[in-house]
Amino acid sequence: MSAPRTLVLSLAAALAASVACRGGDGGGRRVPALPPPAAVDRSPSLVPAASCEALETAIEDAVVLQMRSELEQLRLSWGGWGGVPVGGAPGDAGSPAPSGYTTTNAQVAGVDEADFVQNDGTRIAALADGRLHLLASWPADALAERASVAIEGWPRDLFLAGDRVVVFSTLYVPRALEGDAPICGGPGMGAPGVASDAFWCGHDASNVTKVTTLDVTDLAAPRVAAEIYLPGSYLAARRIGARVRLVTTDELPYPEGVAYWPPLAPGASADERDRAFAALEDANEALIRARPLEDWLRRGEVKRADGTSAPIAYACTDFALGAAPVRPGILTVATLDLDRQALASSTSVLARAGVVYASRDTLYAAASHWWWWPMPGQADATYLHAFDLRDPDRAPYLGSGVVDGTLDDPYQLDEHEGALRVASTLATRVAGSDPWGAVERASQLTVLGLADGALRTLGKTAPFGRDETLFATRFLGPRGFAVTARQIDPFFTFDLSDPASPRLVGELELPGFIGYLHPLDATHLLGVGREPGPGGSMQVKVQLLDVTDLAAPVAVATALVGEGWSWSDALWDPHAFTWFPGAAGGGLLAIPFVDYGTSGLVSDLRLFRVDPATGITPAGALSMADVYASASGPGWSFAWSPYVRRSVLADDPVSGTFVYAVSDAGVRSARVADLPAWLRTVTFTPLAAP
User: Residues 662-672: pLDDT tens digits?
Assistant: First the structure.
C-alpha cells in the first residue's frame, strides 16, 4: 500500500469510527464522537500524490476531521464548563561608500533573510505605511528619500539584492470555496472586492503572497519588473545568491455554509443537543466533500513588465502526502530566479508548518503533530521535512524525521557537518482540574542525521529546565547553548561533538531571562534580555557570557537600561539586533529601546561598546521620540508603529562610525561620536486611518 493511500485510508478509518460512535437509534451518542487521536508517527515520510482523486480525498478527510474535532469540543462547552459560542462560520563622510557596514542579522552565513529593512552601504530600502521607501543613505549627512512606491496588499519583508528589490506582500483574495462575501480583495488574480490596499488587508486577512520585483538601478525611478501571485500566506524567505526560496502556508478554510453551532431551543436537553450537533456535523461534511479539487487548490499568476500575464500551472503529483497527523493546510517551497524574475519551481506538502530553517544546502520545515482531541497522556511532537537547496532551480524533498516537543523559532535548529541539531520544548499532558488536563514542560536537545531518505535520531540529551520555558537557543560549531526561564534564568551549555551522545555540560543561573544569543567569537556570547529592576520596573539587559570552559560558563559583564517598563524588539526578533565587530573604536552593538518611566516615553536606539577584555560600555543613544510624537495619531495601529525598530551602522575611514535608526515613521542618521545629536531625518507619511 502506498503512503498516499495510507494517509487517505487512515483518515477515512478515523471518520468511520467517528460515525460508529453515534447511537444507532438516532438518539444521542457517546462522548467523544471521534476516534482516539493518532499516535506520533515515528517514521514520517512524504511521497507524491498518486492521483488528483487521492489528493482531493486526503484534503477533505483532513478538513472533515478538523471540523468534527472543533465541533465536538464546542458541544462539550455547552455542558457548563466552557462558554457558549455564538455566531456562524469563522471566517559628513567624504568617501563614496562606507569602508564597512552592517546588513540584516542572519542565522547562517551566506543565507540572507528577508526583513522589512535592508541596506547595501549606500542605499536603504524600507517598508512602511504600505509603501516601499528607497533612500540614498551615504554620506550620512545627505540622507534623503529618492522614491516611494505603493505596494499592493500588506508589505511584509524584502530583499535588496544588487539593483533589485524583491518585496513580499500578503493579500486576501476571495475564492469560490468561501462564497460571495470577501473580506477584502483587489486586482491580484482577478479578484473582486474592496481595494486590497485597505490598511489591514493582507495583515490579519491574507491567503495570497505577492512577490514584486523592482529594478532600482535608478533609485529615483524604480521600475516594476515582475509580479508573481502565489496561493498561501507568507511564512519566510531566504536568499542564496540570485535564488530566493519563499515558503508559504495555506490553511484550507471551510466552504461557505459550514456552521459552528446548531439551532438549539432554550432549555434543550443533552440528548437534543447531541442530535443537533450530529446533524450539523453531517451537513458540514457534505458541504466539504461537495467541493471540487480546483476549489481547494488555487492557481498562481505571473504578471510581466510588458503587461502580459500567465497562470501558474500545477500537477496533482506536485503535492506530497504523508501519514503523520498534522493540521490540514498546504506548505509550499517556491524557488524564484532573480535573474529571470520568474518562478523556477515549487514543491507543496499537505501540512501546516510554522517554523522554517535553512542552511546553504538544506531547508527544513517544521509541522506540529496534531492531537485532534486533547487528553492526558499525550506528548507533543514535531515533524521535520528536509528539502535540497543544492539545485538552484528546484527544492526536491530529501526526507522527514520527528522530534519530541515543539519549536517556536528557527534558532532552535542548526545544521553542522551533516547533522541537524534541534532544541525543543517538551510538553506532556497529565491529569488535572482542567477538562483537557494540565501540561508539564521541559526542554531537550536532539541530533538527527539524513540517511536512506529519512531524518533519523542519532542522539538526544536528557530533559532539562523542567517546568520552565525555552527562551533562547544558539549553536556554535560542536557546541550548543540554551536559555530557559521561569523566575530565574538558567543558561545551559552542551557538548555536541559526538552526534550520538549530545550532553549537557554546564549551567549558570541568572536573573530574568535572555531572549536572544549572538556569538561574538569562539568563546563569547552576547545576550539581550530583561530582568526586574528597582521599584517593580523591568529593565532591558545586555549580557556578555564567557563559554571558554563549557562546564563553567561565566557572566563577564551586564548592562541594564530602563527605569519603567522597558523592552526592545531585539528580545524576540534577531533582525533588530545589530552587531558591528569592525566598527572604528571596537565592536559596537545597537538595539532598539522603548521605555515608559518617570521621564515619559523613550523611543531610541541604544549603542554599546562590547569587548571581552573590557566588558560592556554605553556608547550613546539616538532618540526618535520627537518623530514618534509627531507621527502618532489616528493612523497608528497595531500593525504600524513609530517606535525605533531597526538600525544600520557604517564606517568612514576619516570620520568614524555612523548610525541610522529606522522606524515605521522614518529614518534618522547620526555620527556615533556626536550622539545624541543627529544629522538628518527622513519622515514617512503615517498610514491613513480606516
Answer: 998 899 999 99
